[in-house]
């Protein structure tokens, strides 16, 4: 057995024995460290292949790549999940997705959802959404609601929503049965003693042994367990331990806790004050899988060692035995996913809430306008294996672009409007030009764009002094405006007292030579909007490994707000005819995040939930190309 894993697992159980639920994150940290190396490697490759300076004239989006052709069911047909099915080709597949309702789901959970719901769906089966609500100290109603909403948003419908707490009585009865079978005892040892019993630090310092409590008779154990149930013990002074096999090399078999008395004695969200003791993950999970008749219990690889105790318990109690198999966790670089850490960012007000578009919770991705289909295809393209991977965030962004590039309409949006007055527009003024919403899909139709004497271009598209390597507007220079029937030449400009350019004067130009650049613009009757552009919330690739803590890695310049942006009037029509993309997953077109469009030469955008009838706020979903600064 892997020594490090054994030691970590030993520590894990100790934590649970004392009622501290820090176990899984411990394991994750280690996995993340290993994955960091791989991520840096992968990132290097991405950087090597990234595109050069964007071609200014072409409002092109993401470059196509071979991933675009991946079979949408590939993850079930090949590899790990195909093998799992071969091992147990059940006629009626029944899986479960078992989140702890202690926070909002994140991108990593989307993989767990895609694996569990997707596997069952692919085989014509069903999936239960089971809330693993055995730790009242950490659970809130808000989390239950957000979790179910996220699952449904991703496009999956649970065949039932269940709660581990539905089974508290059944679990209690089975714990008494285990005592009768002489396979459980009430223990009063403190953490240091338990450590010694498990062979000391890292399980290597001494022989393993059992405490005197393990020798108690059935009657004593029953009496003490009932006293625990009746609240006669203080938190952490007694717990029920399974009597497993301390000779076994697997620390998961060294008399794990089955029941504990939580520290805070908070009432349970569903069962109130009925219970003073709560079953541990190790006792609850396999038994609930068994009660529900789960065929394939799919979880992440931190639970590989738990498979033995999972099977031991179901066998000992002679109940139906589901099959547990483990796949690799999904981590992404440049952000944090753990619910515990996310909660800190929310509590400290570093972000706007659990759904802040800079986070990678599913509600944040939703608010940011990421279509669920992009998340699912990202996961499918990565495939499912038994290794835990850290994926460069740029790869996720590429999946989003690929999903949007042919499926959302195009509009013109100017972030920092600079007026350009075309003095000689003459008869053209007030005429309308056709503006197709898509160059790929004519069925999206077109909108009219009015030619006005004053138009607005982006401030960054004008320079006071021209130079040979600069292709956009400058005094004396001729350029094209996208969809505008004539080229224009800048002839003059004015500045305010602070030296800021306030207006450019231009004339129509009839040169026949094709200009080096076509820039975007909007007419004077455009719609004012606020635009929020979000960058990475963290400065480093792996914020959770920063020595002084991830909070010291926060990029405080990660949200740029353009208060006076302008979007052309086709916007209202695009909003009215949402959702974009018109995918079957998104039924409810009233949601603002379903209104998506490409701002030509700028980025993909959606409407933020902060919008009101008076003020539209847009979020950038993703840039058009990978940022060369990244
Ligand atoms: P976190 O610590 O990040 O909040 P967790 O593991 O505590 O996550 P649970 O609520 O216990 O979250 O997770 C429900 C299911 O989702 C579990 O089966 C778990 O293995 C899976 N899961 C959680 N994070 C990931 C991830 N990053 N990749 C794949 N599956 C995940
Ligand atoms: Mg957890």
Automatic annotation (TrEMBL):
The keyword Methyltransferase does not apply. It comes from Stachybotrys chartarum (strain CBS 109288 / IBT 7711). It catalyses: tRNA(Gln) + L-glutamine + ATP = L-glutaminyl-tRNA(Gln) + AMP + diphosphate. Belongs to the class-I aminoacyl-tRNA synthetase family. One of its GO terms (cellular component) is cytosol. Residues 44-58 have a biased composition (Basic and acidic residues). This is glutamine--tRNA ligase. Residues 23-68 are annotated as: Disordered. InterPro entries: aa-tRNA-synth_I_CS (IPR001412), Gln-tRNA-synth (IPR004514), Gln/Glu-tRNA_Ligase (IPR050132), Glu/Gln-tRNA-synth (IPR000924), Glu/Gln-tRNA-synth_Ib_cat-dom (IPR020058), Glu/Gln-tRNA-synth_Ib_codon-bd (IPR020059), Rbsml_bL25/Gln-tRNA_synth_N (IPR020056), Ribosomal_bL25/Gln-tRNA_synth (IPR011035). Residues 92-400 form the Glutamyl/glutaminyl-tRNA synthetase class Ib catalytic domain.
